[in-house]
Amino acid sequence: MSESKASVTWQENKAFMGVSPSGHNVQIDADKEKGASPMELILLGLGGCASYDVVAILQKSRQEVTDVRCELTAQRAETVPAVYTDIHMHFVVTGQDVKDSQVEKAIKLSAEKYCSASRMLVQGGVNVTHDFEVIAG
């Protein structure tokens, strides 16, 4: 097992400064005035993790990708703790002659094998779904 260390320091009100294991500062604010909320960061982490996988897999399969965007839509429970119950990830992949079958395969590999954020959320009971569109360009 590998170990990661991070820190979160209170600034004021509901604002905190996070320092990632790689040393990057991340502004966190539950009131969303000075930064993203903790739950928003979970959503962004999922999108970043899956998008990284999709780009890497498409590049390895020699797809001429020029842009990948992951649009996430999430539902949260009505009661505390207001966990995510459902997250839908819509990938928009732009490139020259990008094959739908390759995009579908990349998303599936990310979801089922490579994206640790997705696996962790799914194992925790979150319903994570995916779809995509390919745009020539």
TrEMBL record:
Name assigned to this protein: OsmC-like protein
Organism: Psychrobacter arcticus (strain DSM 17307 / VKM B-2377 / 273-4)
Gene3D superfamilies according to UniProt: 2.20.25.10, 3.30.300.20
Superkingdom of source: Bacteria
Pfam families, A to Z: OsmC
InterPro entries: KH_dom-like_a/b (IPR015946), OsmC/Ohr_fam (IPR003718), OsmC/Ohrsf (IPR036102)
